[in-house]
Model the fold of this input.
Amino acid sequence: MRRGREESKVNEERGSLVLLSGPSGAGKTSVCERLLRTPEVVRAITATTRPPRPGEVDGEHYFFLDDAAFREGIEGDRFLEWAEVHGRLYGTPREPLERQLDSGRTVLLSIDVQGAEALMDRGVSALYLFLEPPSIEELRRRLEARGSDDEATIELRMRNALAELARKDRYDHSVVNDDLDRAVAEILELIQQAEERT
Done:
């Protein structure tokens, strides 16, 4: 079921929150990098307990926290949402996100399906977009091509992907990432349409 238009928008004074989620390997990172080339779009920085991948910078790509610091944030209600995914904790710190929204910009939050659903269930206003791969076979190929996960982790991600794909109808829109340029153009058009309706 699609969410109602009035639930999917943020008032103009605060800027817009756009949530992009989908299975691991759907191409969220590549899509987000391209979307962020648009001057009006800024990235919401999330927190995680997973170790940084090569080239990732704390405070720029993620806030990298140890387990104790993350759980302290949970206890202090300092996360908009949080979830355990693939054995690691992920969450969206409230304070940095609020500052970005107060600036009046479009804030892009790349988030796992579990986290997006938690926000939907709490009625958080946003444009909810689901990014899906062109096929399950292509998803496996992308995960294997990363070279960062062992076979057991890839199998876990594939099982999770099938469950996540089954829940894509909860989102405002689903975009197939079969071609990066086309997918990014479609998402930008959806953002523009949403902002014109506010």
